[in-house]
């Protein structure tokens, strides 16, 4: 087993990374927990629910389950209330613990429910997608979507543990593996040129689920994420670099309708657009832009963006991004591979990139 520690003002907690970890997640339950609520979706419940509940009931705590409908399009207030209806119906108190068993949607919603139920209860992340394992389960970002913007309503709220079982990745569709690898590649682009080169060299093996390569990718990604989150829990500075490609990606998701593209697919495409914008704005070499495009293609993510309704709709959607300030769109850009900065970009440069890379 590999442990990665996260230390923030909101709490310190371990990330446990281990093949077969689902059978041991009860070890992370607090001794004073009065009840456990597993929040999941039907697909994940059918695959892993019985095993997880068996591991949790070994603690002697009562365990119940809430199933949320599966998909980004259900990451909203109406679905969130299913968790509250369940917990309030059982009259659960402040020592109840939520276990988020699923991908990024389940993790974000269960975490947000934990943040606001009785003004805050404990929760454990059990991510079952590669994207959630390397990104969304770590760092305490919780939220629901709004029709006018992705993840616009939420809270920074840290889990008490993250439990990563690498064997669950064997059940994922190929698209989900590709989507998660986009976030892995992102860490190399913003923090470690050598790691990006490693991703480039091993793209084929990662995509084909080589277990040793995936274990390395997960561990390194969690280490990068923990380093950034520990330095900047609430995204007041450094943490914003984790959004490389996301300004474009969130516009794609909102413009097409949540669920049409997987989040990681949109991020992969966003990495290509962000690198092209970095070339125009910061002088990133054209050869590096091609390296980014090639790696995104090799891991199986789109490299061409949808046209949506034209440049004006793109701009409108990106002004709704959380990094925007006073209506000015902010982008994460790279002066070189392995480094990132946040700033504005000339609208003509943004339009040129969209016109070049929109399919």
Structural write-up:
There is one protein chain. The protein starts with a strand and ends with a helix. Helix 5 crosses helix 8 and helix 10 (263-282) packs antiparallel against helix 11. The longest helix is centred in the middle third of the chain and has 21 residues, at 211-231. It has 13 helices and eleven strands. Helix content is 46%, strand content 17%. A hairpin with a 7-residue loop joins strand 10 (331-333) and strand 11 (341-343). The chain folds into two domains: 2-171, Rossmann fold (3-Layer(aba) Sandwich); 174-357, Dehydroquinate synthase-like - alpha domain (Dehydroquinate synthase-like, alpha domain), CATH 1.20.1090.10. The strands form three sheets. The chain has a seven-stranded mixed β-sheet, sandwiched between helices. The radius of gyration is 20 Å and the shape is globular. With 359 residues, it is α/β, with parallel strands linked by helices.
